[in-house]
Amino acid sequence: MMEQINTAILGASGYTGAELLRLLAGHPGFRVSALTADRKAGQTMDAVFPHLAGLDLPTLVTIDQVDFDRIDAVFCCLPHGTTQSVIAGLPDRVKVCDLSADFRLADIESYAEWYGHPHQAPELQKTAVYGLTELAREAVRAARLVANPGCYPTCSQLPLIPLLKAGLIEADDIVIDALSGVSGAGRAAKEANLYTEVAEGVHPYGLGGHRHLPEIEQGLSAAAGRAVRVSFTPHLMPMNRGMLSTIHVRPAAGVGPAELRAALAEAYRDEAFVRVLGEGVVPATRHVRGSNLCLIGVFPDRAPGRATLVSAIDNLVKGASGQALQNMNLMFGQPEGLGLAQAPLFP
Amino acid sequence: MMEQINTAILGASGYTGAELLRLLAGHPGFRVSALTADRKAGQTMDAVFPHLAGLDLPTLVTIDQVDFDRIDAVFCCLPHGTTQSVIAGLPDRVKVCDLSADFRLADIESYAEWYGHPHQAPELQKTAVYGLTELAREAVRAARLVANPGCYPTCSQLPLIPLLKAGLIEADDIVIDALSGVSGAGRAAKEANLYTEVAEGVHPYGLGGHRHLPEIEQGLSAAAGRAVRVSFTPHLMPMNRGMLSTIHVRPAAGVGPAELRAALAEAYRDEAFVRVLGEGVVPATRHVRGSNLCLIGVFPDRAPGRATLVSAIDNLVKGASGQALQNMNLMFGQPEGLGLAQAPLFP
Amino acid sequence: MMEQINTAILGASGYTGAELLRLLAGHPGFRVSALTADRKAGQTMDAVFPHLAGLDLPTLVTIDQVDFDRIDAVFCCLPHGTTQSVIAGLPDRVKVCDLSADFRLADIESYAEWYGHPHQAPELQKTAVYGLTELAREAVRAARLVANPGCYPTCSQLPLIPLLKAGLIEADDIVIDALSGVSGAGRAAKEANLYTEVAEGVHPYGLGGHRHLPEIEQGLSAAAGRAVRVSFTPHLMPMNRGMLSTIHVRPAAGVGPAELRAALAEAYRDEAFVRVLGEGVVPATRHVRGSNLCLIGVFPDRAPGRATLVSAIDNLVKGASGQALQNMNLMFGQPEGLGLAQAPLFP
Amino acid sequence: MMEQINTAILGASGYTGAELLRLLAGHPGFRVSALTADRKAGQTMDAVFPHLAGLDLPTLVTIDQVDFDRIDAVFCCLPHGTTQSVIAGLPDRVKVCDLSADFRLADIESYAEWYGHPHQAPELQKTAVYGLTELAREAVRAARLVANPGCYPTCSQLPLIPLLKAGLIEADDIVIDALSGVSGAGRAAKEANLYTEVAEGVHPYGLGGHRHLPEIEQGLSAAAGRAVRVSFTPHLMPMNRGMLSTIHVRPAAGVGPAELRAALAEAYRDEAFVRVLGEGVVPATRHVRGSNLCLIGVFPDRAPGRATLVSAIDNLVKGASGQALQNMNLMFGQPEGLGLAQAPLFP
Predict the structure, then answer these.
(1) Rounded Cα–Cα distance for residues B341 and A26 (Å)
(2) What is the pLDDT of residues A134-144, one digit of tens each?
(3) What are the φ and ψ backbone dihedral angles of A230, each rounded to 5 degrees?
(4) What is the ipTM of this complex?
């Protein structure tokens, strides 16, 4: 019997919090000791998320009510912008995986530009490890604070970074069209996310400046060894979960789809959660639903000098809570895939 | 390390077969040794169900190609009507859970009436145990052949049988309106099940004579101690998974919703998968998605002398493959819930 | 060229308001002269409902800003409870069709019981005509104020009233299970109506006391000639539009489904919008989407002494704005179907 | 009263045929005189498409059974590849709008390459007018045979052609990601189009070689004055109707999004069905559902030297049957928008 790690989820009344609880339900290592939700404090999780009834979970409390001396691990699922001061107030010995965007941008100037206010914990920011697990495993293992990547950045960077690092594609001509399920927008009651406003239709949004863009460019720039600007257009899909990126690249001279595919297959050869598909096999979001998988396909393009990458994840799992658990497993020396072995749910 | 049971799934290219594989992927006791699918024999499961890629599954073969001397357990997911002769041809030592309707009706006259041809294995029929697990646990444990209940019958009988047994509701006035996701219709390519024909609309079907009706009546009649006829109307819903039964009953004299709820809560007090909800809590299919749960609620009705029962299951899990695994666990002396502990997937 | 009637829509920023505008776009008789929406006053309709861009509609204003001396017809799409005082303040010469529930219950005691406060315009209530058009045509024609029926009451009463009037079914044993698309819940931003909360799942609600229940019972009681109590259970469906009622009745002695069907066919023989389907033809909501149609089917039930009625409408058209226009056409002496001839949209 | 034109729809049992009937139901000029469907010949349209019940339509017959001497206009909705010989066999006096791909490619070598067999009516091909109405109005007016554009080509070419003609964008760097509803796949019963296979998921398809690609390139090449190759990736969406193209372009030196928008606004200034949206207004498929509209938006891109075009249509209307009717109106000297004035259906 593994000794269990006392765990708190801050902001547990949203979808990423609920998804963590789903994954932790089958996890032997983490004990859910505290759940917070400021507006819903006092409610049971059964009331807030009936699908989790029966897991015998703690009642929701405010953050102030948590005794962090008895907590070892914190998953922070608070809204963007509200997280910095909360994490700054936690005891140093508590390890934190933050699912918000607050610590993802290493450059606090860039943070200030995109989020409209100065970063409130710049020293803490310097210690944060960007937790794209497969590409930062050792740093994550040693981290006290992990900034868990956004869903779009996870889905885009996993196929692109190995190719940029290897110089197999041009850094200056990357076009990303990304498709996301609605759960990425969270559980807040907004007209735009009503069933009636979303079902049976699609549209792009954040045109020319979605907040995940600097996060993507940060990772791609590091891989390319110089500043990279990409074209990135997210779209809202009439589905609960799932994210798909269709990425248009220019292979370097003499490089074709087969070489790109081989390089990605090699990069992720030993990975449990990133799967590079064979020639002609097309990633689809329904093939990863509920799982921590990322599927990647590489395709030729009839347009001269181009190739197409396609990647698919579940935005709530590999794009949020699953990757967070993957990171926390590493931070506590547990097997990386613990609690993440579930096969996808289809149909 | 548990010694593994060699297991075959016959008809593994349909949704119930795939769902069994999803559940078995996390199961320590059963080894998937053979998968059959007549028309798709020779294909890999990766090709047939890409979401199961990575499970290292056997290639699909025909039933003839299976060496049943090396098989201990068979899940039979063949179409209704084709199953009797196949199971009759299996070695006696092989334990079988049949997900088709072929062995569900104890009365072979009734079978002949509803299915339009004489039963082809009447002796075998006599040995079959109807596997509504919670209500037939000991018989299932001892069975060699379990007839796994249909989705509608599971969802309707679980709330009704304890009440009929206890004489708490009238047997002669039961009205069931049931709502099912499309996966219940299987994976066969039919115009009526195209996305375009199903999305954004609802309709009843099988009016006045769905094949699950005699199965429901068989169970209710046994519980009531006399022949029961019910009104049963299934409806097709624009969703992949999920089944909900809204059941209108007449409580016996002096009995109200509270007494019905208490009786059900008592009947299922120790059950892991059947959950009787508190007053005012409404079952919803999204709260059981992907899980083996059955939620039951009891509600007052303003119409004099009536009460309403509502039950919800995932038609592919408790309504098919999950209950089948629950039964097979019992048949092999394993913990009943092994492989079935996953929390529901929401949203 | 018809002389056009100056028309105001109060509460035009909701779905029923938008639907009226869609229908009026092709209507030669009504000129849209004023649109109100208190919280969105000052916005253009293009901004509030981009699908209506190009119709050259007035900008949204507050009710106070409307010069009702220049208005002849008012469609009132305000929330329940807020409507009484507004309508009471309109000039007598203005004809009003009210889509809220405020004037639907003739008995103001019943109103007070169900809505939790005394009726604020009891004298006006006495003048209101309940506008279930096919069954109240002459009264509607003469009315100054029409209370437009709710969606559930429309869908339930159209099949039941002729049968009750003719004594062909028992009044004391009517069970209605009704399925509604999400647009019936309106455009207010509520967590429960988010895409993520609704998609891929179904559930009942309002168990034992939905506010449409007294409205249904009012109509059925009048038809039966005595107080009728029904069992009525609404369900939320993962679809934008559409409503289906599955209604379980007990035919009178010697009456079978064929007689019920014949009686309904006779009752609606000359109706353009109510269609009684032939034996075995099943109503489906997708067959009425976007149209003012009500489809009715009658089916046998294997349970002794029972029959099943099924009716389908588009909740936003025949269940709201379409029937409102149908009524307003009558109130102004125009052809009843003007603006309502569009064929359903499928798929 | 307009003298009515006798009209036949060949292949009326598919979705484009049904959509034509929906649009023609409100059209004063065309009388539906014959409907064909080889496999469903003998059936009534009520049975094949219950939503069209009540339109008093002819029973389905085989093509052989049609007396084309009494037909003036033919809408041909037959499958690709089967159409050439049928149209070649029609009397010269019959005007034809063909919704298949058979006459869209002016270069019969290209046709042979993409469709795998030689063109069977090369002389007829020379007479065919490619009916992208707004850009070919005069030719359509004079045509006897119009090749109605595909949905993807319509949605992509309308925003691109004016910009290429004006030299405002580079012809050699166009990336199109297109999203389509399922109705574009037709009504044939295929596993891949089942509700369960499509709902709650997205994926690209036809990677590197969808058959609409040469059609798009044909139009863009003509506009650019030289051979153009584009990157084009279609995606299947979980929705019935709607198509959205997100198109990445490189404006010419000194040209920005504002200039592109102005040029498109000017190009379509007098058009009823093509609407260029203001700055920041985003096209969405739900805003055109059921209508013949094409919405176009132009957006800046943070990536240097790029801009983004977004266009949205209903694939069954402007992408198929609506444009076909628009063309046929022109061919018979009727007002171009007759029968096409319906406002979009939302939600």
Answers:
(1) 8
(2) 999 999 999 99
(3) -120, 160
(4) 0.97
- For the stretch B182-221, pLDDT in tens is 999 999 999 999 999 999 999 999 997 889 999 999 999 9
Residues of chain C contacting residue A191, judged by C-beta atoms under 8 Å apart: 187-189
Nearest by CB to D190, which of B15, B183, B189?
B189
Distance from CA of B102 to the nearest CA of A (A): 25
Q: Using alpha carbons only, how large is chain C's radius of gyration in Å?
A: 20
B347 upstream amide cis, omega within 30 of 0:
yes
Q: Chain A: give the shortest CA distance to residue B108, in Å.
A: 34
Query: Taking CB atoms and an 8 Å cutoff, what residues of chain D touch B240?
Result: 195-196, 199-200
Asked if A288's CB is within 8 angstroms of B51's CB, the reply is: yes
| Tens-place pLDDT, residues D203-218 | 999 997 889 999 999 9
A192 band by pLDDT with thresholds 50, 70 and 90: very high
Distance from CA of C316 to the nearest CA of A (A): 12
Query: Hey, are the CB atoms on A343 and B241 less than 8 Å from each other?
Result: no
Q: Across the beta sheet with B231-236, what order do the strands follow?
A: B203-204, B231-236, B175-180, B243-249, B307-313, B294-300, B274-276
Angle at D257 between CA D251 and CA D263, to 5 degrees: 85
Confidence of residue A209 (pLDDT cuts 50, 70, 90): confident
* Terminal Cα-to-Cα distance of chain B (whole angstroms): 35
Q: What tens digit of pLDDT does each residue of C196-225 get?
A: 999 999 999 999 788 999 999 999 999 999
Residue C181 has pLDDT above 50, yes or no: yes
| Contact between residue B272 and residue B336 where contact means Cβ atoms under 8 Å apart | yes
* Domains of chain D: residue spans and CATH: 5-149+319-331 (3.40.50.720), 151-314 (3.30.360.10)
Nearest CA-CA distance, residue D100 and chain B, Å = 20
Interchain pair D342, C343: CB under 8 A: no
- Does the distance separating the beta carbons of A15 and C199 come in below 8 Å? no
Residue-wise pLDDT for D308-346, tens only, equals 999 999 999 999 999 999 999 999 999 999 999 999 999
Q: What angle do the packed helices A151-165 and A257-267 form, to 10 degrees? A: 110
Q: Per DSSP, which regions of chain A are E strands?
A: 5-10, 30-36, 60-61, 73-76, 95-98, 129-130, 145-147, 175-180, 203-204, 231-236, 243-249, 274-276, 294-300, 307-313
Q: B247 is written with which tokens?
A: 């059941």
A240, C195: Cβ pair inside 8 Å? yes
CA separation for the pair C302, B174 (Å, rounded)? 12
Residue A54 has pLDDT above 70, yes or no: yes
- How close are the terminal C-alpha atoms of chain C, in Å? 35
Q: First-to-last CA distance in chain A?
A: 35
Cβ pair B194:D199 closer than 8 A: no
By three-state DSSP, how is residue A15 classified? helix
Task: Give the integer Cα–Cα distance in Å for C103 and A160.
Answer: 62
Question: What residues of chain B have any CB closer than 8 angstroms to a CB in chain A?
Answer: 15, 18, 21-22, 25-26, 49-55, 183, 199-200, 240-241, 275, 281, 284, 286-291, 293, 341-347
Using an 8 Å CB-CB cutoff, list chain C residues near B202: 179, 237, 239, 242, 244, 284-285
How many residue pairs from chains A and C have C-beta atoms closer than 8 A? 62
Kind of pairing between the strands at B175-180 and B243-249: antiparallel
Among chain A residues, CA nearest to C188: A191
Is the CB of D344 less than 8 angstroms away from the CB of C51? yes
Q: Dig out the tokens for D303 from the structure.
A: 């990536």
> Are the beta carbons of B275 and B294 closer than 8 angstroms?
yes
Assess whether pLDDT exceeds 80 at residue B1: no
Please give the average per-residue pLDDT across D80-84, as a whole number.
91
Catalytic residue, chosen from D77, D151, D155, D294, is D151
